[in-house]
């Protein structure tokens, strides 16, 4: 698999800058245990939001306040 990692900042080369890890230099997707292609990240995000939407209202409000600055992106409430 050699698809672009979701954490890679936009640079002309693949050995660029990682936006997630403390050590900013990406060693390359073949040796990084945190590599995740963009499409997998998007799929995981979609699944997470589908799951959040099934929770009781009070739990959704709690999660929205704690992690999303009061917004509920799983309901289309994006920034
Ligand atoms: S492969 Fe690893 S180091 Fe490179 S951008 Fe992705 S998460 Fe960061």
In summary, what is this structure?
The protein has 79 residues and is mainly α. It is built from two helices and no strands. Iron/sulfur cluster binds next to loops.
Structural commentary:
With 79 residues, the protein is an all-alpha fold. The protein folds into two domains: 1-36, no CATH class; 38-75. Helices cover 34% and strands 0% of the residues. The chain is built from two helices and no strands. The radius of gyration is 16 Å and the shape is elongated. The mean pLDDT is 88. Bound molecules: iron/sulfur cluster (SF4). Residues 5, 7-8, 18, 20-21, 26, 29, 32, 34-35 line the site of iron/sulfur cluster.
What integer value in Å does the Rg equal? 16 Å
Series of H and E elements:
HH
Question: In the residues, how many domains can be counted?
Answer: 2
Principal-axes shape call: elongated
Task: Report the helical percentage.
Answer: 25-40%
Nearest-integer average pLDDT: 88
């Amino acid at each position: 698999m050699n698809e672009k990692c979701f954490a890679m900042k936009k640079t002309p080369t693949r050995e660029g800058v990682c936006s997630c890890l403390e050590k900013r230099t990406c060693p390359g997707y073949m040796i990084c245990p945190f590599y995740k292609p963009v499409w997998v990240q998007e799929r995981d995000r979609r699944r997470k939001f589908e799951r959040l939407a099934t929770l009781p209202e009070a739990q959704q409000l709690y999660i929205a306040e704690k992690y999303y600055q009061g917004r509920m992106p799983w309901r289309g409430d994006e920034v």
